[in-house]
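User: Run a structure prediction on this.
Assistant: Running it now.
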Amino acid sequence: MAGFNKVVSSYEDAMAGLKDGMTVIAGGFGLCGIPEGLIAQIKTLGVSNLTVVSNNCGVDGFGLGLLLEDKQIAKMVSSYVGENALFEKQLLDGELEVELTPQGTLAEKMRAGGAGIPAFYTATGYGTPVGEGKEVKSFNGRPYILEEAITGDFAIVKAWKADTFGNCVYRHTAQNFNPMAATAGKITVVEAEEIVEPGTLNPSEIHTPGIYVNRVIQGTFEKRIERRVVSEESV
């Protein structure tokens, strides 16, 4: 079974083949469930003119925000961009193209891409700038717009546990966009908190089957909290 072992020992091997101009789909939501080491490796590689598809672009100095520092991202496809001052500056200066996409639509674009479905109809965005220039069709008297699926050259995701075959389990809210992203990459790389032997994971608990995964690497994670909110106990 050694031929099924997808574990790589270095971040260089994990992201081997990434080149200028490619599309990278990244799992995560804010700073929750992001593949921190794989993002850092993209920065180290210095590749540029990337299209990055992710819910948002991290924060200044961390997560996908690291890739803005050297202007490695040419286009961002995301649903939320509100926590990153450098993102805002590059957008307003015309240095960064942004395709704002409703969050559910973005998730479905990834899922459809991974399922081999080229496009789908959704009511979300009809009658707004999101729907401008898109095909409209009526179903049961309600208008829907046609949205194209998304696939990427690379998909980078973060798992709680992965086995050496690439089967993945995500933990709680860190699941977020990771399962959809994992299906939509030509090369999918998983950064896991823990790598276990095959047969260790309960089959009914696996979120991403290893058939979608090309490489697995053991990661270490800082797990920053994007915005800490606490309540004061009443006296």
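The longest strand covers residues 152-163.
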